[in-house]
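Please go through the protein record below and see whether the fold suits the sequence. Record follows.
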Amino acid sequence: MIGVMKGTCHCGAVEFEVTFQDGPENIRRRNCSLCQRKGAIMSDVPVTDIRVIRGEDKLTLYQWNTKIAKHYFCGICGIYTHHKKRREPTKYGFNITCLEDVDPFGSSEIALANGTSMTLLDEDAT
């Protein structure tokens, strides 16, 4: 079932829409240096399925290391909204905690992905 959900940063200056085929997939947290610090719960969509509908001029771009990935934050409130992926440039990762009517803590089954190797971490190893 195709559906569209709206998301915003905290202050509302940035608004975006995400189109899903079957709802958010690959929901996870990552332990890389940036993801660990921002603490977001992420999901992925093809680049064609996310669209900033307001506040593109309010977004701040952050890049490091290879400068391939593009991480976007609201320049006013600082909330991470989405990023263009380095390893999968045909996809955007986005912060599901920004989506309206989504309880990101409604499930205790959020995967933890190893940000270095892009694999799920073994629960026994954490």
